[in-house]
Structure formats: structure tokens, C-alpha cells
Amino acid sequence: KEKHKILHQLLQNSTSPVDL
Amino acid sequence: PMEADHKILVKQIHEAYMKNFNMNKAKARLILTGKTSTPQPLIIHDMETFQLAERTLAVHMVSGDYAESDGGVGDRQVFPAVACEELEQREAEARLFHCCQSTSVETVTELTEFAKAVPGFQSLDLNDQVTLLKYGVYEALFTLLASCMNKDGLLVARGGGFITREFLKSLRRPFGDMMEPKFQFATRFNALELDDSDLALFVAAIICCGDRPGLVDVSLVEQLQESIVQALRLHLLANHPDDTFLFPRLLQKLADLRELVTEHAQLVQEIKTNEDTSLHPLLQEIYRDMY
């Protein structure tokens, strides 16, 4: 899960690319 | 009832596509053929016009510096022996590479939202959703990129710029090798003359693919893939009645896309190893242990 932290985050909530 | 089911799925996927992607083929074609009331895109054909584009299209071409503590693209000490002009060129190439990354990150975000809106996707195991995105986003990205390309160049910055194929080709290795295979793919792919409704289903089929490495529940993903592929087949028959072989020809493109992504991942790896530049954390996640 740690390896794909941002993908998990994107899937679980809407994150704007600016916040990444 | 099956006929009705596929029509509903086609509609839902097409709507999700139109809602989540900032650029689509219809919009891109209007700009590329000059049939739009918006200003003509700024043509980027050399370093000078690239720098002009960086200033005028700043909002959408803004490039983050993802450098870690090992020095960023602006670290002049890395090239002590390189003449000033060449240094400027190298820096511009690195900035261009970062612009490409920003666009990729934005598209991956759009693709994620699109995938979430595909009926059934969110019912999959979360780890499988991650796996499908990890392996699917670049294939999807190069499919969408084809919509923004013609034989002479590529629409960038939300249609505000047009970067010529010759300029991209003229960049120093390995940057100069980056886009040419995508143009070659786009020429063949665009010859199929798909519209946005076809593309929406094709992109959904790319993402919901049952043979990605490491899937937990393969059969559930296969079921989802089957319903999308069937919807695509029926939709193509209805939408392109004169082209009966379009569906098998389109399925063949999936193999081309896989090859394109493998080649691209190798180039990115080469850039990461040999160039003083950095990779966005989201893209790092996708490339890590990919193939």
C-alpha cells in the first residue's frame, strides 16, 4: 500500500494535481 | 434486455469521459483545423518560441521542480564545462520534460476520476483499482494524446500551444527520441477515425483489463472487462456501420500501446539515470516495478 500512496489517495478522494 | 444494458453502459462511460477530461478529440480537432473562435494556438517550433510559450501560457505550462536534495534542474555546477548556450538549451529541455510530467500528472488524475465513474470499477478491491491504474494509465494517456496530434505536431497547454514534431525531434537524445514513436502510433490510430464516444469505451477497456500483474480478483475484473468490451463492440457496429473490421483492428492497437509504454518507461528510466532531472512522485509510483 505504501508503494502506491498517491494512487490510493487519488482513488479514495478527489485530489487536485496541484496538491500532489 | 442485453441491448438496453449495453446502451446504458455506453452512455454512462461516454458521460464520464466528457465530464472528466479537460481536452477531448472533438475539441482538439476544432482547434487543429482552425474551426474555432478561440485564438489560434501559439506555435512552438524552436527554443525561442518555447520560451515565449513558457511566459505567455504560464498557467498551464507551469512546471514544478520535483528535485530531491541531490540538486535540481537549475544546478549549474553539474555542467561546469558546458558552454553557456548549451547550458541554456539543457535547462530548457529539462523544463520541457517537466511540462510533460505536469501534463501527465494532470491526465492521470483525470483518468482516475474517469475510472471511478465507470460502473463497477469502485466495487473492485482497492488494491486491484490501484493495479489497474498503475498499468493502464500510460496506455490510456497515449491513446488520448493521439487525439491532440496530427502529422505535424501536438496540441499542448489546453489547446493554447502547438508544439511541432520537428522541434521535439530536434531535441538532444534521449529527449528527442521521446515523442516520435507516439506520433507514429497516433498516425495509425487516428486513421481509425474514432470519435469521443468510441474513445471513452476504448479507454475504459484499457483500464479494466483482467491480465494486469498482481490482480487479487482476476475474475471480477474480467467480468467488468467483458461487459465494457461487448459494449464497445456493439457501439462500434452501430456508430461505424461501414467499417465491420473496426473492432478487431482496435483490439490490435492494445498490443501496440503496451509496446509503446514499455519503450517509454525505458526512456524515462534512462533520463532518470543519466540526466540531472527529477520525476514527479506520482509518476515514480507508477513506473516503479512496472515491467
Structural features, described:
The complex is a heterodimer of chains A (20) and B (291). Chain A has 20 residues and is mainly alpha-helical. Helices cover 40% and strands 0% of the residues of chain A. The mean pLDDT of chain A is 76. Chain B is built from 12 helices and 4 strands; from the N terminus they run H-H-E-H-H-H-H-E-E-E-H-H-H-H-H-H. In chain B, strands 1-4-3-2 form a 4-stranded mixed β-sheet. Chain B is globular and about 65 Å long. In chain B, a hairpin with a 2-residue loop joins strand 2 and strand 3 (153-156). Chain B is mainly α and 291 residues long. The chains are: A mainly alpha (20), B mainly alpha (291). Chains A and B meet through helix 1 of A and helix 5, helix 6 and helix 12 of B.
Mean pLDDT of chain A: 76
Biggest pleated sheet of chain B: 4 strands, mixed
Strand content of chain B: under 5%
Radius of gyration of CA atoms of chain B, rounded to a whole number? 20 Å
Q: Summarize the main sheet of chain A.
A: none
How many beta-strand runs of chain A? 0
Largest interface, counted with CB-CB under 8 A? A-B, 15 and 21 residues
Helix-and-strand structural type of chain B? mainly alpha
Distance between the termini of chain A: 17 Å
Q: How are helices and strands ordered from N to C of chain B?
A: HHEHHHHEEEHHHHHH
The rough form of chain A would be described as elongated
Number of helices of chain A: 1
Helical residue percent of chain A? Answer: 40-55%
Instruction: State the secondary-structure class of chain A.
Output: mainly alpha
Anisotropy-based shape of chain B: globular
Task: Name the average pLDDT of chain B.
Answer: 90
